[in-house]
Amino acid sequence: INRLVLSIPLFLTTFYFLLLRPPYCSSSNILVVPVDGSHWINMKVILERLHSRGHNITVLRSAKSWYIPSNSSIYTSINISMLEDEADIDYYNKMLQDVMGCRSYPTFIRTFCQQQLITYMMAQGHNILARSTATIIEDTVFIKKLRDTKFDLMLTDPGMTIGVILGSYLKLPMVFNVRWINTGEGHFTIAPSPVSYIPVPGSELDDQMDFLERTKNVLHYLQSVIEQHFIINPAYSDLLQQHFPPGTDLLSLERAADIWLLRADFAQPLPAELETFMESSGEHGVVVMSLGTLISALPRKVTEAIAAAFAELPQKVIWRFVGEKPSSLGNNTLLLEWLPQNDLLGHPKTRAFVAHGGTNDIYEAIYHGVPVVGLPLLFDQFDNILRLKVRGAARVLEAYSLTKEEFLNALKDVLENLSYRSNMQRLSQLHRDIPMTPMDTAIFWIEYVIRNKGASHFKSAGFRLPWYSYFSLDVAALIIAITGIFMCSLVFVCWLLCCRRSRRKMKPE
Description:
The protein has 509 residues and is of the alpha/beta class. The chain has helices at residues 2-20, 38-52, 89-102, 107-137, 140-149, 161-169, 186-190, 211-235, 237-243, 250-255, 272-279, 300-311, 341-345, 359-368, 381-389, 404-416, 418-432, 438-451, 467-470, 473-506; strands at 29-33, 56-62, 76-80, 153-156, 174-177, 180-181, 184-185, 259-261, 286-290, 316-320, 333-336, 350-355, 372-374, 394-396.
């Protein structure tokens, strides 16, 4: 009976979404400002579905984009100046080397060292983005062209603040394809996140913190507040003062978004040559490794150690690798400059995943139930892998000091200890247990915003409160003041009574 009662709301919700809701939204014009790289790969999947439903899509992209093509059958592209115009892979390789230096510091302080490097990078990036956005907004011909198109929606990743500011300037409803935003995770920007048990991004903590760890978490939170208000916001102050109402800052524009989306789950059949390689692995299966394009920045001795460890495995290995081929590479290892990572993780022959722990890595590994050997390198990767480690679904290693023996032991542990796969498959079951597919959910809410010309009725009233009201500090101050006045009055009355009693005793004398 309990199961039946619990299933009724779920059935009604699913029935509404799949049958009662409008199957299509009328054709609309959607303006898209994506972030390059893996962010674009995720957004492209959504754009393909929107295009199939009759929506007209315009993508603003960098002329030097690494991943976003200028010609496409699903969208029209317009080239603009973006962050990628002034950065290249060498910059990130240099930063990786600096982060690896931080990893040699004691555990408590190394995360602050890493965050300082990221803060410096973000300061440069936001200054570039602010200048790029100012150039776009002040181009009256370009802005008129956008206004005349009469877009119905801005779909953007808030990591590319050009989309956030431009969408606000054009007064368009906004949908964010998001996880990361400014100084951390989007969750921290839009939802209450008590630092007593919710780890601040970059802290490398879990939700079971002792006193020292909670102290570290609070310090990381204060660091993020300083970054947001004294480093990031000032980069846009001149732009916002000139083109927006008084008091507008970047954070207020981001919080004005109508809907925030996360990732999608999908997998496709492998190309014939990869399918043949996977099937040839027999009962031992395959290990998949991908550290993205940053593998070329690892020390040569580390890549040699990895290759030598792989050579001793009975499994076959598919390794996304860019750079000089390791001399210790075994016959069981296939090097590829690019690989269909999600599709490989969905293959039944895949036994383990060696990854740096980016957002896509984590979601895809969880979805397909593949245990992980983590080699985090930058940004959120250390926190992401830690989330899997504390749930018994991953091993974590330090890339900067990795040896063949450490890597081989970790691989064998994950491959031979069935608890890692069991724990990951449990996470996969929880992840998949939803009433609608992620794609259907995303498309529904995007079209919901288009149909209703926004979703301001969903926005929390907390965003409109000053910080002292949000934390009820003004109420606390009033209560403390009243209590203080009461206590002072009580002390004063007691003093008067004592004085009178003393006088009465003195009169007879």
